[in-house]
Amino acid sequence: MSHVLASHNDDIKRLIDKGYAVAFDENEYLVVRDVPYLDQDRKLCQGAIVSKFVDQGNNRIAQQDHQVFFAGGVPHGLDGKPIPNLGGGPTALNLGASSADVVVQRSFSNKPPAGAFVDFFAKVESYVNIIGGPAIELHAVSPLTFRTVEPSPSDSPFKFRDTLTSRAEIGDLNAKFHHDVVAIIGLGGTGAYVLDFIAKTPVREVRGFDHDMYHVHNAYRSPGRLVDQELGKPKAEVLQGRYENFRRGVTMKRVFVDASTKTELEGVTFAFVCVDKARLLRREGSPKRQSVATPVGLGAPAPAEVGRTATANNCYTPLMARPARVARHPVPFPEVMTISELAGYLQVSKSSLYKLVQAGKVPGQKVGRHWRFHRGAIDSWLKGRRRNPRKTPKTLEQREAQSGLDHAEDART
Fold it and tell me: Is the pTM of this model over 0.90?
């Protein structure tokens, strides 16, 4: 990948030609290994600079901002003191399998006088000189190792580079679905929309089942285009053609799922039953498992644990679809949480949580450009809210956030 990008980006080619150990993480990060630095005892250490890039298409990439992440401890100067003028602070970042040896521990922010770096070459040179300058001078070492890091074979089901995962910072969440096999029984109105969402998640396999044909009325209750040639064809065939160019592991079959065809569900780890006769189907041979309705979408909270079969027949909003109280296995949340982790911990949408945080209603600390939240402080805050009377929220959005926080209080206390 480095050589492909180097042939289309002059700044990347200059970094490689000069000798920097340049690699690219599958979650859209430029990684420069072998960066020397000094610890507080002036001992030589090695770290890595990690910088987010933006995919502009046609193998062209650009910087996102002037900041970087760093895999390593706090860099010190020749005087044994931390290097000044490096903003940011402790943080964590989920990188892909090809960067398993790179453990990000902090972020740095050192804006150039011009306000932005010209390109990646200028950015890397600047940060290497600041972070590694004292080590280079004291120990006569060089960051120019000419080392190449071959990426791990990609197990991504997508035929295009996934540029959303790093942008939304959901790499840790996506990793939980890599081995799932999802079945969608019924590809009509609800099933077609479920398929459209699930096809864009990194599950290993998506299986769809529907015995009916595709007609004009189906186009009015499903996503995507309408092409004359698709009318009168099996729904499974139409939807197979729509998604097989986007990802691998999509299998749509013209099959009516009942007791006689239940072998089609072997290996399935999660099933959406999107048919009008879901109850009949369950009686005829589907496994007797708990059904729950749960909100979907980027802004929805991530439930700690849900049942393994979901029945979906109606449209509903996250506010209407608060999950039923079911027994859950406790999920370990870190002592210091990101905004995404806190949304899952509180079971509220990320967008609503952002508004509460920005308004100063949730205890947290901003580290560079990112918010961090101490779990103990959040628990104390939740207990304090129970002792204080609440005002009735005025807007739907406020009521949704309030409902989620009330639900979190009850679940955590």
Answer: no
